[in-house]
Design goal:
CATH superfamily of chain A: Ubiquitin Conjugating Enzyme
Organism (chain B): Albula goreensis
Number of strands of chain A: 4
Helix content of chain B: 25-40%
Structural class of chain A: alpha+beta
CATH topology of chain A: Ubiquitin Conjugating Enzyme
Strand content of chain A: 5-15%
Catalytic activity (chain B): S-ubiquitinyl-[E2 ubiquitin-conjugating enzyme]-L-cysteine + [acceptor protein]-L-lysine = [E2 ubiquitin-conjugating enzyme]-L-cysteine + N(6)-ubiquitinyl-[acceptor protein]-L-lysine
Number of helices of chain A: 4
Helix content of chain A: 25-40%
CATH architecture of chain A: Roll
Shape of chain B: globular
Keywords (chain B): Metal-binding, Nucleus, Transferase, Ubl conjugation pathway, Zinc, Zinc-finger
GO molecular function (chain B): ubiquitin protein ligase activity; zinc ion binding
Shape of chain A: globular
Distance between the termini of chain A: 33 Å
Number of domains of chain B: 3
Strand order of the largest sheet of chain A: 1-2-3-4
Number of strands of chain B: 15
Number of domains of chain A: 1
GO cellular component, one term (chain B): nucleus
Oligomer: heterodimer
Distance between the termini of chain B: 41 Å
Chain lengths: ~200, ~675
Amino acid sequence: MQRNTRLKRELQMLSTEPPPGISCWQTEGRIDDLRAQIVGGENTPYEGGLFSLEIKVPERYPFEPPKMRFLTPIYHPNIDNAGRICLDALKLPPKGAWKPSLNISTVLSSIQLLMAEPNPDDPLMADISSEYKYNKPVYLEKARRWTEKHAVQQNQSLEDAEDKTQGKQDKVLSAGRKREALGSLEPQDNSKKTCL
Amino acid sequence: MENSDSSEQGGSEQSDTQRRRQLDRLDREEAFYQFVNNLSEEDYRLMRDNNLLGTPGEITEEELLSRLQQIKDGPEQPATNESRSEEAPGPEGQEEGSNGDSLLDWLNTVRRTGNTTRSGHRGNQSWRAVSRTNPNSGDFRFSLEINVNRNIAEQQAQNEEAEQREGEEPVSLGPEPEPEPEPEPEPETPMETADVVEEPVVEELAVIVEPEEPEPPRSETASITQDFSFQTQAAPPPRPEDVVRRAQPYTAQPFSFQTQPLPPPRLEDPSRRGQRRARSRSPEQRRTRARSERSRSPLGPSPESLPEAVVEGSSRTRQHVLSRQSTAEFDAQPGGAGAGEAAEVAAAAAAAAAAAAADPRVVPSQEGEPPAGEGGAAGRRPPTIMLDLQVRRVRPGEYRQRDSIASRTRSRSQTANNTFLYESERGGFRRTFSRSERAGVRTYVSTIRIPIRRISDAGLSEATSMALQSMIRQIMTGFGELSYFMDSDSDSSDSNRGPNPPPPEQAEPLHNPETVAAAAAAAAASASGGLAPESGDSRTEERGVEGGTPPRAGPRGPISLEEPGSLPFLRLAHFFLLNDDEDDQPRGLTKEQIDNLSTRNFGESDALKTCSVCITEYAQGNKLRKLPCSHEYHVHCIDRWLSENSTCPICRRAVLVSANRESVV
């Protein structure tokens, strides 16, 4: 299992140099079950929120993409009510764009980017998507309200709960919100035509 | 994984041990790369194709070396039960009564992890399952062998009896398999045929059952066999390449039985046998059966084999059931219903059935008592049943040329190799049934191609999927019928019935009971809904039961084989077919295509120092593979990715586009 070796390295990298606004750690010593948090980006309706994600790493990782899902409700054209994310990097070719040179960290960054830049042309939530396209103020308002409601205060308690259950050393929270750092990411040729 | 568990606990001694373990692991990884680098191209391929490389850091160099040795020493002998079982990552199945589910679970883990052996025994039965998976190629092979043994003493007695009888009536031999089955020892050469097709579209599932039954001499009141050992065994040659597992598509080989290497002749050494035999069955269990005396065996047993049978009594010679000719024939058969987009389920029921068929006196009992039982009855040589499950994906175009011959039912016979072929198409499924005879062994091959594509693409039309399911059920049921092989001789008292009634599930009108000659064949035939072969010499005959010998009452073995479909491993078909709902299976490269990509050794001066698949830095001497886009990776890392995908993990450029010229044959 290449998975474990690789995951270990990834977790190490995530803890030493996490991407800005992203943190990731393993739950209860299970290497295939991770949690992540993404800080809502500035100038997005998600600003001020802290969004938790669940990451399941399949046996065949990195030959298969990790499975990621939002635990925190989020109002977004490409994320459904169950937290499922429509992102090509989360799917295998030929439909998706997963490749083994991606990793948890880059995928989380992609998600962060997706939060800032929804892709209404490949919607998972059709109504939110059309709202985003044709009535943006309404979308922004709703997204902000959701963030307020789910990602801000509840997040506090979530975080607390996690602090209790989690070993501390694996938990890395970097609250930096420097989005410009995203520029250093691999080119994201996101043609996210993977949903619906 | 070992290390990860402790990572949460804070204790310093824990972190110490953890660190030590990590160091160990690093050492092993180092050793692994060293090892891989020192392998010759050939050895590397050999090991990779047999999935012996494992994961860096998890296997010691010595282990690797011994694996290499083992594989080089020839096909791993399945008989090395003990040694192989060490490799089994899964639950070491000593537990009694493996039920289908646990087997399935086990399989689930196994299919990704490679070679495993699981074995166990209870009472007088022992079983062993071997599976080999090659993650690189996606090949999968699974085999199960079951041995049921009875009391030695009884056996001997029987032998004597039998000998006597034989003396009296040597003529009545059923078809006797030649003692030396064609050995086909060749496993070294990768079987790849040049048949590389562009992109796989289809899934193909082949379930091959080759019951093999040396039919021992039979006399009027042949006592039904004691040492009824049943062997279900997949074609043993360890080359996983022959079989492709569905989930991981594509080998270049066309689906064919020829890829089925024959089991290396005898798996068991005498000592072992003895031991097995020791597990006895109560003597009562033996039955005698009156048989009608027609002792004409059309497929004359080879003369030499006769004596041998007598002498050796229990020696089991395994015979290859599927003749190449039949194979070829079969293979040549018309493509699936939809241009290459068909899943193919092939059930080959062979020899035993065949043998039985050859013997006029064999009558299928009501339960579908298979001749195998009778073979067993013959007692001297235990029948051998091999079950071989092969799964592979059909490449588009693979059958294309032959598609034109679709939708007809036809049959033809080639006297040359005695091969008959029947074919029909109904409801979108194509079935073929072929029979061939060789050296007194008849082989039945039944194939069904199911256009899975249609299902997955068209978005699961209810009807189709129902049809598919029922097809699968039929197949499994058909195989389940095999269980009667084992079962039947116990119930043979009521075997004096006519032709085998079709199993409940199989409503195929075409089923021709008369031909049931071989239950296996019948099973296969009925499973496929195929045509039963008209075998001239098969007869339905009445079989008298002699004496009030009670049917065997002994407890059945751990694997409950009684009900149709209960052979746990038969669910594999289900497992494979239904597990594969991801319709967007990535397309990978074939082994040849991969091997044609250039490799080199890492040198310190290189710029890119990390393999992006494993995120590990290259070490001096690491073997790297360079894709046409110039990106490089560890060979073992990229090979695995390319076996399922065709793009560069970094730039996503298609590997084949530029590689095509050289690599595609």
